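Table S2 (continued). Query chain:
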Amino acid sequence: MQPLFILALFLPLLQACTNAHFPDWLQPSPKASVPAPQPEALNLAATPSPSEMSFNLRDQQWQHRIVLLFAPSERSPAYQQQMEQWQAHQAGMQERDLKLVEVLGEGESRADGQPITPAATARLRQQFGLTSASFAVILIGKDGTEKQRERAPIAPSTLFRTIDAMPMRQQEQRSQP
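Corresponding output:
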């Protein structure tokens, strides 16, 4: 059995070196051809500007809690109400390792104040099943899972209670001096 196995291993090499033709039963089994990767065409319209960043939730896992704020635009009354409430609670957000990601249907979306690419915006909308006209506030825990979803502005105190009830947050509070 071993000689046959060794022959099967060296058969393609022998065939390539000698240009010999072997019987069908000795031919190596055909493998599905995998097309070689093609370089992408340069698409300047899709290339993010240096000030834009691609945002991926996985990059934040175990480091930050994320508040995703989905809104049609900055002119949306619900968006304005939510942002106004959060402005007064920046210290509480920072204490809980919260990063705000604004996912807007119209206008520039931002992660922690930095512009994100339209592709990242579309990916977040698709991932959470929301249209560009939707309003939602979604809390993502440090473990990367969705913890809370609201379809209307949420009071920071309500969000903080949800976070403070999490085992990871309680452990953080115990380890703080």
